[in-house]
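Need the bound structure for 3-phosphoglyceric acid, inputs here:
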Amino acid sequence: MTTWTEPGPVMPVIVLDDPGLAVDLAHALVAGGIRHLEVTLRTAAALGAIRRIRDAVPQALVGAGTVLDARQWRQACDAGALFGVSPGWSDELAHAAVDRGLPFLPGVATASEAMRAMRDGFTLLKLFPAEAVGGRALLRALHGPLPAARFCPTGGIGAHNAADYLALPNVVCVGGSWLAPADALAARDWMRIEALARDAAALPASTAV
Ligand code: 3PG
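Answer from helper R.:
Posting the output first, comments after.
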């Protein structure tokens, strides 16, 4: 299966150095109304964090982000990831993602890359790094020639511009690290993270189908 299960308006991009924070963080985000959580494989703590969230927070739908190759995707699946996200795309990842049958968001930045990921069977794509590669203007321009493509733009998106992205007809959700800021994690400020999640969950839902 390469389709996606109705994410909320915002997918938090989570970078954790301490797997011991994972469960409290997931509880705070879920309490604020955000269920899809992308834990990036950028730290040694990531796989343990995914495992802990799967075990302890059944209301959360935890996935792995920054999946760069097939080995990482296998490890993430074995840790319990329910979906995957990559900043880019390759034959290796396409085979691995199709093989596991879980939802996967290929990363794309151009029409050619989007065409390739769609040829591989994926229609929900991570536009990355969204603001740097053209942001909303690029998404509007891609909608004409690629009307079936749906996007989760990520990179440079925050509370200030998320609603503008979500108003586009080809944007299903946006991704961003602003829901789990490093200073709030270090301070274990779960109330602040829950409040950020609540604001994000209250954003106008995407109208993309
Ligand atoms: C990602 O990994 O998807 C991005 O680095 C997140 O970008 P942001 O920090 O600008 O939200």
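Comments: Residues 91 and 120 are 9 Å apart (CA to CA). The chain has a mean pLDDT of 95.
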